[in-house]
Amino acid sequence: MSQISRKIILLCCVVFLAGQVGAKTPIFHYVRITTDKGTCLLKLYNETPKHRDNFVRLVREGYYDSLLFHRVIDHFMVQGGDPDSRHAAEKQALGNGGPDYTIPAEIQEGLIHKKGTIGAARDDNPAKQSSASQFYLVQGRVFTNAGLDSLEQIRMKGKKLTAAQRQAYTTIGGTPHLDGNYTVFGELLQGLETVDSIAEVKTDERDRPISNVRMSMVVLPKREALNLERKAAGLAPKSGFFTKIADLFSSQKY
């Protein structure tokens, strides 16, 4: 066999192995949210595919870059995603902007408003369809069981919380009265302190921060997402020769 043939065979083997490495895709989509108050890492739920796919598409288009957190209520949530906020004047009323379509509700019983989750904002439409771009990050507060009992009787009109809800709201905290009314489509893996920092800012009579808090977002590339999931599983990240070759031959979108 000639030396040229050996090189061709070797190259084919490298490309094949690289293809095998690059064929893997992350289980979830991840978004890094950078704000004036810190950075968050968001995992999007696969149980809410319409919201997931819409959010990923908007992030990749740069839709959220330089938008404001235009509605902030301490111990409740921080809201953004109104495109009108990008060049908004001081004291301008915000909250009505967004694409000219809505997302069908994907409300899941097990996806609750614990602290650090992301929910889709909406108006009072009876189908509970979501705004295509506006979202909120839940801060909320930690409840006692007695406090949850009172919430069930008064605000939730007798509807009972599950054991899982009670466990979350008496430890992590959140906003239980929103459950069943808005679509929750992801949760923060990092950055709860950033939500707390945003929630603490001074606001005007419309709950808009007096000093602007802006955001930018990026979807984690495939390799970074895969290594994030490997780390969560107790495995070392992949960064060897074949991995780097695979990344050259495969898209980092997923």
From TrEMBL:
UniProt keyword annotations, A-Z: Isomerase, Rotamase
Enzyme Commission number(s): 5.2.1.8
Residue runs in coiled coils: none
Source domain of life: Bacteria
One function term, GO molecular function aspect: peptidyl-prolyl cis-trans isomerase activity
Domain PPIase cyclophilin-type: 27-220
Matching PANTHER family: PEPTIDYL-PROLYL CIS-TRANS ISOMERASE-RELATED (PTHR45625), PEPTIDYLPROLYL ISOMERASE DOMAIN AND WD REPEAT-CONTAINING PROTEIN 1 (PTHR45625:SF4)
Official protein name in the record: peptidylprolyl isomerase
Organism: Sphingobacterium bambusae
